[in-house]
Write a structure and sequence with these properties.
Layout: E1 4-5, E2 7-11, E3 20-24, H1 38-41, E4 48-49, H2 50-59, E5 65-69, H3 78-91, E6 96-101, H4 106-112, E7 118-122, H5 130-137, H6 145-154, E8 161-165, H7 172-183, E9 189-192
Parallel strand pairs: 3-5, 5-6, 6-7, 7-8, 8-9
Antiparallel strand pairs: 1-4, 2-3
Bound molecules: iron/sulfur cluster.
The site of iron/sulfur cluster has 11 residues, from loops.
Length: 204
């Protein structure tokens, strides 16, 4: 059986300059405060089969990029992810594919590196501050070297971007540290507006 998605939507904002199909996969290895997609993380929604996403991505003439998002795509079977991307590309070789990830599974990214056009990698706090990263992601015992490795794997691919929500608990110094770190990378970094999600059960 192939991948099972939760839903998809069309966006002109996610991939700069392109109309993209954003396809959402369930599950995540983090429990971030104010997660916008917490219902995907906890699996409260139903499923659609990958053939439906495949058909929409490859046959809708408006779409010129496919984004695999979530939840966290890299918690899924890497062979299934790879096979799905290959299937998409074999039907429409012009379609660009990006994976959105929290960067905690670099080995899965490595497995996908030669079939995708880039990654959107979250940098949720300075990589020198494990306590702050664990607070932000609601996850203990993090190895932040894994995020560094993911940043490095993604760097320089045509669609790669790095993203940080402007969490209110990050200080100016924290933001500057992330800015300094990403200044040394060739792919762009975006500091995004923080939007509260009061209903998120991971806020406590
Ligand atoms: S990484 Fe965090 S924000 Fe992203 S889906 Fe998982 S819990 Fe939500």
């Amino acid at each position: 059986m192939g991948l099972r998605f939760v839903s998809y939507t069309i966006s002109s904002k996610d991939v700069p300059g392109r109309w993209s199909l954003i396809a959402f996969l369930p599950g995540c290895n983090f429990r971030c405060r104010h997660c916008h997609n917490w219902r995907l993380v906890t699996g409260e929604k139903g499923y659609i089969f990958e053939r439906e996403v495949l058909q929409e991505a490859t046959q809708n003439p408006v779409i010129d990029a496919l984004v695999l998002s979530g939840g966290e795509p890299t918690v899924h079977n890497p062979d299934k992810l790879r096979a799905f991307v290959e299937r998409v590309k074999s039907r429409n070789s012009q379609l660009k594919v990006r994976i959105d990830t929290n960067g905690y599974n670099p080995q899965v990214m490595e497995r996908l590196l030669d079939v995708v056009d880039g990654f959107a990698v979250d940098i949720k706090s300075p990589l020198s501050k494990r306590d702050l990263y664990e607070y932000t992601t609601g996850t203990k015992g993090l190895d932040l070297e894994r995020i560094r490795e993911s940043v490095s794997i993604a760097n320089g691919l045509p669609l790669t971007i790095y993203r940080t929500p402007r969490y209110p608990w990050l200080s100016e110094e924290d933001v500057e540290e992330i800015r300094d770190f990403t200044d040394s990378l060739s792919s762009p970094w975006f500091l995004n507006e923080f939007v509260k999600v009061p209903s998120c059960p991971f806020n406590t």
